[in-house]
Amino acid sequence: MISTLNDLKKGTNVIYEGDPYVIVEANFVKMQMRKPVMQTKMKNLLNGKTAEYNFHQGEKVEEADLQRKKVDYLYNDGEKFFFMSQDDFEQFELSKESLGDTALYLKDGDKVDALYFNGTAVSVTPAPKVDLKIVSAPEGVKGNSAQGRVTKTAELETGLTVQVPLFVKEGETIRINTETGEYVERVNS
């Protein structure tokens, strides 16, 4: 049970209206002559929808009991993504809609963390950095580099598009930060 507003911060898992949510934004607000509130934006871990709610001082908030397991990403059929637990080889699927942008960081055979609520997998989290191959990267135009770092758009094997430096070419493998979606470095094959 969460008892103070200060315990409600980004990344905290809570039960709201019977479903597990993760807090994606939390702002402490105190106005004159009013009690403080924690304004939150939360993502439902079951269906991916967001909700905004103001938690008030003294309000009882139940922390979601979630378990983490290592799982292997197997494949997808365009709409559903299939995974297998490394512990008991149990397979499960998650929809593309519930995965959201996470789907763009998944390659066959990747090991990811799965979040379980009441024994059912509700979401997965890829590694903080993943290596993906560039399938399309037009030649960069040199010249306008007075502003500093010059980039071009590259499409990766999963469909993700990122800004990369001009020296990166099609067919190379690059490392991507999954939290920011940004290019980190070129990977030597």
How would you concisely characterize the structure shown here?
With 189 residues, the protein is mainly β. The chain folds into 3 domains: 5-63, SH3 type barrels, CATH 2.30.30; 66-125, Nucleic acid-binding proteins (OB fold (Dihydrolipoamide Acetyltransferase, E2P)), CATH 2.40.50.140; 129-187, Nucleic acid-binding proteins (OB fold (Dihydrolipoamide Acetyltransferase, E2P)), CATH 2.40.50.
Task: Describe the 3D structure.
The structure is a single chain. This protein has three domains: 5-63, SH3 type barrels, CATH 2.30.30.30; 66-125, OB fold (Dihydrolipoamide Acetyltransferase, E2P) (Beta Barrel); 129-187, Nucleic acid-binding proteins (OB fold (Dihydrolipoamide Acetyltransferase, E2P), Beta Barrel). Helices cover 2% and strands 51% of the residues. The chain is built from one helix and 15 strands; from the N terminus they run ββββββββαβββββββ. The protein has a five-stranded antiparallel β-sheet with strand order 4-3-2-1-5, with no helix packed on it. It has a five-stranded antiparallel β-sheet with strand order 8-7-6-9-10. A five-stranded antiparallel β-sheet has the order 13-12-11-14-15, with no helix packed on it. The longest helix is centred in the middle third of the chain and has 4 residues, at 96-99. The radius of gyration is 20 Å and the shape is flat.
